[in-house]
Amino acid sequence: MYVVMNGYDSQDEVSVVSPTHLPLRILYTGEIYEGKRDPRPLFEALSALNLGPKDVEIVFIGSTVAAVADSAQSCGVRHLVSTMPRVSRAEAARLQQESDVLLLLMWNDPREKGVYSGKIFEYVQARRPVLMLGYEFGVAAELIRERELGFVSNNPKELQEIVKSWMSVKLRNGRIPPNPLQSLTGLSRREQNEKLSNILKEVAVAKGEPPQAHS
């Protein structure tokens, strides 16, 4: 079986920014689908750490993110959470680059196993560490682990430890270092299109058909 991913747009220029602001900023950009994209494990982790706004902030940007306020309130971390309406793609990219960690919420269900989500490729291009909550045995989680792009868990205790680790790094160094450039290798849309073209040529040859050029 062949797998060709969506990939990120390599034509979009990305200048790596190393955020030096405090507190640790965790950013989510996208929509919230109730029952399928649940930030509660992270909220529970932060609640147990008894942190204040000077320690960490979680920013949700999108047209449906206001729904997270109730969840944050019930977990006792409403003071750590802020929401913003949907912004342009360019503005979202800028905010991603200016954040310390990018939050990826996916459905924690085996039916999500083969789903990458286009969002993950946006985050990959921003080169910020990715914190994924969702199905831990799917292709998205596998990509994050294999490329060392960030951390995957739904366990509040594990999430506590990674948040504390990031806070410690930022306090010590003033910033969270970007993911290495080589972590992007092969993940651009151009590279994935080339992969598809090569697959089609192989299939054509296997069938005894003359290979055709694909744009």
From TrEMBL:
Gene3D superfamilies: Glycogen Phosphorylase B. This is Glycosyl transferase family 1 domain-containing protein. SUPFAM superfamilies: UDP-Glycosyltransferase/glycogen phosphorylase.
